[in-house]
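Summary for the funding panel

The consortium committed to producing paired sequence-structure records for every protein in the target list. Below we show the first two records in order, beginning with the earlier of the two.
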Amino acid sequence: MANGGRTPRRILHTSDLHLASFGDTACHLLESLVDLASKTKVDLFIVAGDLFDHNRVDDNLVSFAMEQLRRLPIPVVILPGNHDCLIPNSVYHRADLWRGATNIRILRAPHGETLELPGLGISLWGKSHDSYESDVQPLVGIPRPQEDGQWHIAVAHGYYTTDESPPFLSYRITEEEIVNSGWDYIALGHLPTFSCVCNEPVKAFYCGSPLSGTVAIIDLTEERGVRVTCYQL
């Protein structure tokens, strides 16, 4: 959406790291992601679901992930996905482990919530998964963006679907929802392959997964609009 005068920003968009046990491949990939974020000088780090493989992971793995993300002097926004959803014993409810991670924000509202990042000129919306059921609709209820001089970023974890898609797919994200949202960029998670599902009028991309070797870097400028680059890990 056109909105003159916004400050250029750079975002790292990742998802589906599926941390399962301390010291596994995903742990090394998380370290690489944090290093890449520092090297590329991003302003915001987004995890579009499934940072953890399940909610039964050990506390030491949660602490490791938190300490890695705390290395970044920038906001980190995490969307709980279908693997690490916000059930009562979720990893994100272990308050003692997350205490002190002042740069980390977790999207907790099952009906969707907007985070304002005024220092970045970014408004970010997302809807957490709050159960293992398949009836979560990740973009239902997304509000129209305000004409407020900010970049508008949405985060969603699910399957992109079209009229030709099988009707039984869970976590459906529809073409109509994306096109009609009016947001600048929609950061998608759940699929392991980097892909663009919508280029105009709204850019919406799956970043793939670090486990399959990809992460997305998004550059937001008034002159060039939204530009998405696939980085190989």
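The next record, for a separate protein in the list, is shown here:
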Amino acid sequence: MREIGIDLSQKATKHVEDFRKDNFDYVITLDENSARAYQNSENTGTIHWRVDDPASINPDEPEKQLRLFRMVRDQIAQRLRLFVIVHVRSQTSSQLAT
């Protein structure tokens, strides 16, 4: 992520259960366990994007693993851009029309 100007050094991973009491318009999950854990959330659009897990690549193949991390990062970025165009902008347009 640092390659694209995002510093995650002070961030920690969290489980979907850590957000169970929070309210969201949408939840996007990237793995099957998180998708199952959040599928019954009320008033929340749940979207599951299946992506390859770069950590599943043999650590003895660092170049292959790095390529997969970059590919997954770029896939998520592209999907987020499309998500914003389709969901967020269309909601904003319909709110302006009322």
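Regarding this second record: The chain has a mean pLDDT of 83. The beta strands are 26-29, 45-48.
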